[in-house]
Write a structure and sequence with these properties.
Elements (H helix, E strand, L loop, with lengths): L2 H11 L4 E6 L2 E14 H5 L4 H4 L10 E13 L2 E5 L9 H7 L7 H7 L9 E3 L5 H4 L3 E3 L5 E3 L5 E5 H8 L11 H9 L3 E4 L3 E4 L2 E5 L8 E7 L2 E5 L22 H17 L3 E3 L8 E7 L2 E6 L2 E3 L6 H12 L1
Parallel strand pairs: 4-5, 5-8, 8-9, 13-14
Antiparallel strand pairs: 1-2, 1-17, 2-3, 3-4, 6-7, 10-11, 11-12, 12-13, 14-15, 15-16
């Protein structure tokens, strides 16, 4: 059995878990929308396989699994999504590019949270690469691309939109430019030109680096903070500042920003929400010499329509 086949087998045997995090009077949920399989060298850039393979195992084709982790925030009577994964409006070429054959779990996960796509109030794409915005699209009865979340404001950095509409040859395949236009045609885009507070305690912050308009979401309640920094630190394997994906358009900007961000996260005891890690969905970080060590936070969560005792039993059976 190859390494990747092993990942698929384990994934199929266990019930699909969410992770729930209570943050003051806010609730955060991380759930897996789908899983992709990407070349490990592209995920770690200039770092040799001898080093990165110790952090992330790969198969005989150098493919590593990445989860599409979506953050759902319940705050101030609103439902907010940070990123939307790959979705189901994918061409055969896109599925091959991302190594993705399974259907999206987006609708299933929302249902288990007692929600549906028309009850999402705000969508925050960290950037406009397909694996972060593909889930914002659906198909109507005629097979035409239409917005998945018809009642949501989609908060998009203007410079990110401009690049997505006119991508260069190097990044063209990553942007679903034609599909993105359905959001604009429906009047659902609210362009963001500067760092801004979306709701009380939920702030958008420009990071750059991965793309020109890549943004983080910082969520604050009381003295607790969670940062969704997306592809600036996609997995726990990227906690060294120099471990940067080859897809980053401005790697030196990523390097500089990561150093400052990691210092802030460790020193202020912030929580990180990882967008592609298989095991760590929410984590606190601490230093051990040159290394940064993650510590899981949050609780396993299965279904909103079960009793607390049933959830505890199911979670125990799923996680051992």
């Amino acid at each position: 059995m190859s390494t990747i086949s092993g990942f698929l087998r384990v994934n199929a045997e266990k019930p699909h878990l969410m992770t729930k995090l209570a943050l003051g009077d806010l609730e955060l949920f991380s759930f897996v929308e789908n899983r992709s399989y990407i070349d490990g060298g592209s995920i770690y850039g200039v770092i040799p396989k001898k080093l990165w393979s110790k952090l992330t195992p790969c198969d005989e084709n150098n493919l590593v699994p990445l989860d599409m982790n979506i953050i759902l925030i319940k705050a101030h009577g609103k439902c907010i999504m940070v990123d939307c994964g790959l979705g189901d409006v994918l061409t055969d070429r896109e599925r091959k590019l991302y190594g993705c054959t399974a259907p999206s779990r987006l609708d299933e996960s929302l249902t288990r949270l007692g929600l549906s796509s028309d009850r999402i109030d705000i969508v925050i794409p960290t950037h406009l690469h397909l694996d972060h915005v593909g889930g914002t699209f659906a198909l109507d009865d005629n097979g035409d691309v239409t917005p998945k979340f018809p009642n949501a404001r989609h908060l998009i950095r203007k410079q990110e939109w401009d690049v997505a509409m006119n991508p260069d040859d190097r990044s063209r395949a990553a942007y679903p430019s034609d599909n993105l236009r359905c959001l604009q045609d429906a009047g659902l885009i609210e362009f963001v030109d500067s760092d801004t507070e979306v709701l009380g305690g939920i702030k958008l912050v420009l990071t750059g680096g991965h793309t020109a308009g890549h943004q983080a979401t910082v969520i604050t309640s009381g003295d607790q903070n969670v940062v969704c920094c997306a592809d600036m630190i996609p997995t726990t394997g990227h906690l060294r500042p120099e471990y940067i994906a080859s897809s980053d358009l401005f790697p030196l900007d990523t390097l500089a920003y990561k150093k400052k961000l990691l210092d802030k996260i460790v020193d202020r005891n912030w929580i990180v929400a990882f967008d592609h890690d298989l095991e760590y969905k929410f984590a606190k970080l601490k230093r051990d010499g040159r290394n940064v060590i993650p510590e899981k936070v949050g609780e396993p969560f299965l279904a909103v329509l079960k009793t607390c005792e049933e959830n505890r039993t199911d979670s125990h059976n799923a996680t051992g």
